[in-house]
Specification:
Blueprint lengths: L9 E5 L11 H4 L4 H15 L3 E5 L3 H14 L2 E5 L8 H10 L3 E5 L21 E4 L4 H21 L10
Parallel strand pairs: 1-2, 1-3, 3-4, 4-5
The structure holds ligand CA2.
Ligand CA2 binds next to loops.
Length: 166
């Protein structure tokens, strides 16, 4: 496991309705709130030497603006785009333009759910996808991001840390 300290934070972006976590549909999304998820992700980040910008918005344009911000100010992106996962070519375009490693997370196993959840635009920009493991998936995504960033840094130093690998 990498314990490399990165100056730039990893952006953890959460999309529409994820602010409702813990309040409704616990059978699908569990009992933990988004604040609980954030605490887990930040604990994992501290363990692997990363810092996070953990955010949530119900607005597609806001999420896209944050992806643009991450392009300059971030080292990677962990994205649970909520329902926009399955609809947003605009968010995909932003993620592809960011030229940062992207890890996609879903609390639920989208492949066990309705067919319209089986396709993800976000996946087209993602190095990897974690789904169905609840809040634990965010911890795993942070750990995986640390490994990706360490591997990229090893390939060409800090300037290469954000570059996608084939
Ligand atoms: O499983 C996931 O993490 C999802 O990204 C959650 C999205 C859903 O549209 C995706 O297909 C899979 C939904 C966001 C959370 O919505 C809630 C609605 C009511 C109560 C709690 C959460």
């Amino acid at each position: 496991m990498a314990a490399l300290m990165h100056a730039k934070p990893v952006y953890v972006l959460n999309g529409p309705n994820l602010n409702l976590l813990g309040a409704r549909e616990p059978d699908v999304y569990g009992h933990e709130t988004l604040a609980d998820v954030r605490r887990r992700a930040e604990s994992a980040a501290a363990r692997v030497g990363l810092t996070l910008e953990f955010r949530q918005s119900n607005h597609e344009g806001q999420l896209i603006d944050w992806v643009h911000e991450a392009r300059d100010k971030g080292s990677g992106l962990i994205v649970n785009a909520g329902g926009l996962t399955h609809t947003s070519i605009a968010l995909l375009d932003a993620l592809q333009a960011a030229e940062l490693p992207v890890i996609e997370v879903h609390l639920s196993n989208i492949f066990r759910r309705e067919p319209y959840r089986h396709h993800s635009y976000v996946s087209l920009a993602a190095k990897g996808v974690i789904c169905g493991l609840g809040a634990k998936g965010y911890e795993l995504a942070v750990e995986a991001m640390a490994d990706v960033l360490a591997a990229n840094a090893g390939k060409g130093g800090p300037a290469a840390a954000g570059k996608k690998t084939p």
